[in-house]
Amino acid sequence: MVNTARKLNFMIRNEIARDLETLVPAGERSKIVNEALARELLSIRRRRLTEKLRLLRDSGPSLTTKEIVAILKKDRRRH
């Protein structure tokens, strides 16, 4: 797989930029920012999916543990 990149233009608070320049060597800054952004985007995706699951849970039928076990057993017998 080819690792491609795009140059983006966005603003970073001054204190974050100073810390980045102080703590991270010049050749590693893009990597650090990419990894941090990837983690944050994954977190956003997970929160959105969790909210969708909560909405589905609230709109679906309520089942007891006994009913869930019975449904799973029945389904396993079919396969």
Number of strands: 0
How many domains, as an integer? Answer: 1
What fraction of the residues are assigned to beta strands by DSSP? under 5%
Helix content: 55-70%
What is the alpha-carbon Rg in Å? 23 Å
Coarse shape: elongated
Structural class: mainly alpha
Summarize the biggest pleated sheet.
Answer: none
Which residues form runs of ≥5 with pLDDT under 50? none
* SSE string, helices as H and strands as E: HHH
Distance between the termini: 37 Å
Total helical segments: 3
Average pLDDT, all residues: 93
Keywords:
79 residues, mainly alpha, 3 helices, 70% helix, 0% strand
Describe the structure.
By secondary structure, the chain is an all-alpha fold. It has one domain. 70% of the residues lie in helices and 0% in strands. The mean pLDDT is 93.
